[in-house]
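== Sequence, C-alpha cells ==
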Amino acid sequence: MTRTDQDSWDLASSVGATATMVAAARALASEGSNPIINDPFAAPLVRAVGLDFFRRLVDGEVTESEGYQGSGKDLGLETDSIAVRTRFFDDFFLDAARDGVRQAVILAAGLDSRAYRLSWPAGSVVYEVDQPAVVEFKSTTMSHLGAAPAAERRTVSIDLREDWPAALRDSGFDVTQPTSWSAEGLLMYLPPDAQDRLFDNITELSAPGSRLATEYHPDTAGTTMSQRAQEFNDRWAKVGCDIDLSGLFFDGERSNVVDYLTGKGWEVAARPRRELFGEYGLKFRDDEAMAQFRNIVAVTATLR
C-alpha cells in the first residue's frame, strides 16, 4: 500500500493496521510468568478490530500448520521489542506524574490504553490525539468492555497533518502547565517536514518543565524509509501476517531528532533500545535477527 499526503485509515487498514499489530504484540507480551508490561485491554481491542491474523494471534491460533513461516523465536523478537518500547513509555509517563506533571498528551494514540491502565495521580488529564475513526472505535469499544479511565480522558479527533494544536486547545489543554508528551512509533509515518512541524508545535505548546518521549531510527548505511518499511513488512510476513504493511513510511532526509530538539531548547537524553532490553531484564541477542532493532534510539527530553 502506498501513502499519500491526504490518506486516512481505520484500525483495519494502512497505518491503522499497524496500531492493531502493536496491540497484538502487547497482548502477547502481557502473558507469561514474568511480563515486563501489563496491558489487559490489548487483546480485547484486537479482537474488536477483527483483522483475522491478529485475532488468531492473540487467541493462540496461529500455528505452523496454518501457514506460519517463522518460529517462536521470530515472534518473540517482535513481541519483546514492543514490550520494551511499551515499558519505556509507561515509565516515562509515570515518572513525569510522580514529579508533579498532571497533563499528558498521547499523539497518534491508536489502541493505546494508558489512560485506563496506568496509575495516574489525582487531577491528571490525559489527551489522546488521533484520526476520528480511530478515536471513536476505541472509545466505543472500551465503553462496551466496561472500562473506566484512571485519569480524566479527553479525546481530540483530528489528523496530525491538520491543525491539531488548535483542536487540542479547544479540548481544554492548558499551555501554562507542564505536559508529558509521547510520540511513540510515529515519526516514520510522517514526511520529514511534518516531523519537524510536530516538534515545533510541541515546543510552542509546552510550558517550561514539559517532557517529551519519542524514538527514532538514525539513517545507517544509506537505508531509506521505504526499505525499512519493506523490512518491517517482511518480518511480520515471516511470522504469518497476511496484511501488506510495506509502503507506509515516508522517504526523504530527516532532521536528527536529538539535534533538532536541542536546538529548540530541550535537554535531551538518548539511549539505544538494546540497552533498555537489559534494564528490563530481557536479553538482546546481538545477531542478524536483531539488526532491525539495534540502532533504534529512545529519546526523553525536558524543556528548559
